[in-house]
Amino acid sequence: MTARVFIDGQSGTTGLGIQARLEAIPQITLAELPPAERKNPAAKAEILRSVDLAILCLPNAAAEESVALIASLGDAAPRVLDASTAHRVAPGWVYGFPELAAGQEDEIRTAPRVANPGCYATGAVALLRPLVDARLIPPDFPITINAVSGYSGGGKTMIVDFESGHGPNFELYALDLEHKHIPEIVAYGGLTRRPIFVPSVGNFAQGMLVSIPLFLDDLPEKPQAAALHAALAAHYAETAYIRVLRPDNETRIEPESLNDSNDLELRVFASPDQRQAVLVAKLDNLGKGASGAAVQNLRLMLGLVD
Ligand SMILES: NC(=O)C1=CN([C@@H]2O[C@H](COP(=O)(O)OP(=O)(O)OC[C@H]3O[C@@H](n4cnc5c(N)ncnc54)[C@H](OP(=O)(O)O)[C@@H]3O)[C@@H](O)[C@H]2O)C=CC1
Ligand SMILES: CC(=O)N[C@@H](CCC(=O)OP(=O)(O)O)C(=O)O
């Protein structure tokens, strides 16, 4: 079986990452627009009619325009995988995190519209959802999420800033506490209370850590850290890309070792004496946080075996 795929926004950071990954899949033919036509709606409509799947790697407003254009094609409309933030909690869209819960992978296989998760949200939801489902973390528990990303997370503009020497070595941002990933973290993390999310960006290109500190005695079950590890390990036991690892005696972690992979590592660091734990997710913001996840979803949507 072969499938025709169009990447709308092919020349951006996420688009180029997806293109490189799709070129390595023999069952996929990429449909391309000439560079001068890539923002021309009429040219887009014509190419969209000819493909099985469109991947949107666009800023939110442009993604919304493309979805409206696709909807206007009626029966000729292709299925859509949107990498932007525009539709992640929108009705009619399936969240593209196959490991979320039982049945999610099957929903992605058949959905006409799939929203690829946000990079930070991937780490946060991966840590939170199994623990909320296992009733170890109540949905209304006060949660703080800290994270650091490489500068490629900010797309072309941030890449140019940092690579021309104009970026800071490190900074916290989104300190209005309104980061765009919070709604999907609430919705798919199984939370009813809005977490405090403090992202940061460092002067390195790619890689990400997402961490969630917990006072174990404030949780209703007063669990040992081992119980948190066990719940995560049980949830992800059968998955291909998510590993739950024991930190053993490590007391530090760096963000870049999963770069260029679709892998996600989860660890529960803890002090049994202090009854405190820190859940940590490591991923490549451009891998499982963007292009890698998009290709994982595309394979499911097109029925391609890994
Ligand atoms: N970078 C990351 O780590 C992640 C990014 N994403 C999401 O993916 C999307 C793209 O982000 P990213 O790749 O980083 O951004 P970039 O800025 O690197 O790329 C966006 C691309 O879209 C193009 N574009 C803008 N408007 C249109 C249009 N109307 N038609 C066709 N092309 C258009 C831009 O072209 P031009 O520059 O000429 O305007 C640019 O090439 C965003 O929604 C982002 O939130 C998701 C997960 C992670
Ligand atoms: C470092 C940096 O700026 N990161 C981006 C998030 C990465 C991203 O593109 O988020 P989506 O997955 O939702 O598209 C930000 O915080 O806005």
UniProtKB/TrEMBL annotation:
Record's keyword terms, sorted: Amino-acid biosynthesis, Arginine biosynthesis, Cytoplasm, NADP, Oxidoreductase
Annotated pathway: Amino-acid biosynthesis; L-arginine biosynthesis; N(2)-acetyl-L-ornithine from L-glutamate: step 3/4
Keyword NAD attributed: no
Cellular component aspect of the GO annotation: cytoplasm
Matches recorded under SMART domains: Semialdhyde_dh
Main EC class the enzyme belongs to: oxidoreductase
InterPro entries xref list: AGPR (IPR050085), AGPR_AS (IPR023013), AGPR_dimerisation_dom (IPR058924), AGPR_type-2 (IPR010136), NAD(P)-bd_dom_sf (IPR036291), Semialdehyde_DH_NAD-bd (IPR000534)
Pfam families in the cross-refs: Semialdhyde_dh, Semialdhyde_dhC_1
Family: Belongs to the NAGSA dehydrogenase family. Type 2 subfamily.
Function: Catalyzes the NADPH-dependent reduction of N-acetyl-5-glutamyl phosphate to yield N-acetyl-L-glutamate 5-semialdehyde.
NCBIfam families: argC_other (TIGR01851)
Name of the molecule in the record: N-acetyl-gamma-glutamyl-phosphate reductase
